[in-house]
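Run 5-formyltetrahydrofolate cyclo-ligase through structure prediction, thanks.
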Amino acid sequence: MNLTEIKAAARAEAFARRKVAFAARAAEDCARLKAVLTEHSGKALAGYMPMRTEIDCLPAMAAHAGAVGVPVILGAGTPLKFRSWSPEATMVAGEFGALIPESGDWVEPDVLIVPLLAFDRRGYRLGYGGGFYDRTLEGLRARKSVTAIGFAFAAQEVDEVPIEPTDQPLDLIVTEAEVFAPGR
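Sure, done. The structure for 5-formyltetrahydrofolate cyclo-ligase is below.
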């Protein structure tokens, strides 16, 4: 083997070790989220399929006592819909590479676990820029009471997220370090 091949093999082994460590950590990262969700037992929950380095909410979703859905993007500028999910669901690639259930019933959530890039103590989040969660939360909140839970690593906290009038605040923020209800 030449040096290039040796390095390639070392990278593959390192990625595999990191993947195992990341997966093992997910249960620990989810402990606080699971505790928060016990207060919402029996309510319809929407989570998300983690991508890249997003904090993994799947263990908490799998443990939830109630219907669980994951987001499906139906088109640009539209609110999300949520398809029924379980750990056994057959998943296919959806928009932006996120996995979605191949089939299943639609779920209208009472509680949403919301992914984010950054958050602040006011309860605002910085998403990926499509406005999907803001439109979704606005529509759901116009019809009923909904709890939006931001789930992130503590390191994602910033002093102030830039906001605009359409941005929807979170009701709770859960990190591996704490749970707090933002002050507005």
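The chain has a mean pLDDT of 89.
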